[in-house]
Amino acid sequence: DGGITQSPKYLFRKEGQNVTLSCEQNLNHDAMYWYRQDPGQGLRLIYYSQIVNDFQKGDIAEGYSVSREKKESFPLTVTSAQKNPTAFYLCASTSRGTMNTEAFFGQGTRLTVV
Amino acid sequence: QKEVEQDPGPLSVPEGAIVSLNCTYSNSAFQYFMWYRQYSRKGPELLMYTYSSGNKEDGRFTAQVDKSSKYISLFIRDSQPSDSATYLCAMSKGGTSYGKLTFGQGTILTVHP
Asked: Min CA distance, A69 vs chain B (Å)?
């Protein structure tokens, strides 16, 4: 079955530690996205990539980094510079067509700072 | 001021009720309008997708877009307990911005038997 797989489902980070969230898709989509969800704030865009080896900052990129070495994979690193990383992180992908902007989401990773 | 505002709720209705969910937006560049449903601790799933103004119906769900008023709605008829979830409106400018979605805050809906 085609879809987006995020791992791990739950992640705990110590203060000052970098952690990497995995996102893999087998939908053959060109574009991939990372969103952050906090209670009462909807989803906010962290980074996005429309093609391999290229990515752009979203609205809240500070303290995060990404890479896009393969079409199927778009990992997100939460660095120690992110002051409030506890949140639900969602990865999404879309096809490249300009008329179809349906985004498919993974099941999310819940990150908690301990 | 946020680009997209959504009634936060929470909303609690009896089974069989008609539910109305709404969002307003400020950026006239938005062309594509979506409603996502999100169950607890899960990723959002697309419910309805509309391009520009108009109505779209799919089973018990109807989406309305009024671009002149910058207002979108989702109606759920004959609501069921399984409809209990968070509903998120989302918008996109299309073109080279395809897939970059701006979301509302989400409305928590509970349908009780």
From this structure: 20
